[in-house]
Amino acid sequence: MLHTILPEGLRFGVLFDRLTSVHSIYTRAEEALASFRARNGLSCPAGCGTCCEGFIPDVLPLEASYLAAWLVRNRPERAREMAESDAVLPTGPGCPLYDPNKPEAHCTVYPGRPLICRLFAFSGVRAKGGQASFALCRGMPDLPSPRSGARTWEGPELETLFGPPPLMSDFGAELEGIVPGDGSRRAPLTEALPPAIRQIVFLSELGGRGDPNRDGNDPVLPPLPRAS
Ligand code: SF4
Ligand code: SF4
Predict the structure, then answer these.
(1) In a designed cystine with 76, which of 98, 162, 207, 219 is the match (CB 3.0 to 4.6 A)?
(2) Is the CB of 51 within 6 Å of ligand 2?
(3) What backbone torsions phi and psi does residue 222 show, to the nearest 5 degrees?
């Protein structure tokens, strides 16, 4: 499915290799999450999107590039608008990529969203001592017996009642390991996205020239303004 994320001109080179690694980590994280949810019958209440309403994710440069590539490929007009700004403009207190009017599809960039948005509700963290810990989101109701009476579990109890959750810290460390030192370059998604889109457009235009395999079916992003 990576071909539905990347513009045609961006199918080789260093950034392509790195985004392939991002895609692989996202895929494994989502498989682990799906398995954890299915095993435990966990889901968010229908229509809830509270986690996006007061939150803007901090992302690695490669996560911004991955989302930028998806936007350029799949939402070129929107990508152009974002690329013309220094930051994605706020639409309220939370993430500007959230649409409260679409209860079944709140996230307008769902296939390109960053790791924290993929794992948020159904992942664990490492507690003190390194053991896994899992907490129910505040938006979820209490669970029935034998998990009733608590909202956080860790260690052997978590293992017995739920099995191992995907761990945000472990997948996050894998992402940070693609480009050593990238962890210190995290930035709010709203600030990271416009320059990432400009970079994707530049590289995909370079890469697409003279590519004999290019089928010409990619949407064409209207010209972007030059940096002054
Ligand atoms: S990118 Fe999507 S899932 Fe993540 S905070 Fe924004 S709207 Fe929510
Ligand atoms: S993670 Fe929590 S706040 Fe977000 S949609 Fe699920 S229940 Fe609602």
Answers:
(1) 219
(2) yes
(3) -55, 155
Residue 209: band (very low, low, confident or very high) from pLDDT cuts 50, 70, 90: low
Nearest CA to 88 out of 104, 75, 101, 105 is that of: 75
Ligand 2: residue whose CA is nearest its atom 4: 51
- Provide the whole-model pTM: 0.89
Nearest CA to ligand 2 atom 1: 121
In three-state secondary structure terms, 195 is: helix
When mean pLDDT is compared across 52-61, 69-78, 84-93, 156-165, the lowest value belongs to: 84-93
Ligand 1 contacts (CB < 6 A) are 52, 55, 57, 95, 97-98, 107, 109, 113, 117
Ligand 2: residue of 37, 43, 50, 106 to mutate (most ligand atoms within 8 A of CB) is: 50
Q: What is the 3-state secondary structure (H, E, C) of 130-183?
A: CCEEEECCCCCCCCCCCCCCCCEEEHHHHHHHCCCCCEHHHHHHHHHHHCCCHH
> What single string gives the DSSP state of each residue in 33-89?
HHHHHHHHT--PPTT--HHHHT---EE-HHHHHHHHHHHHHH-HHHHHHHHTSSSPP
Q: Which residue has the higher pLDDT, 74 or 103?
A: 74
**Per-domain residue ranges of the chain:** 2-114+169-208, 124-165
Proximal ligand: closest to the CA of 122: 2
121 lines ligand 2 (CB under 6 A): yes
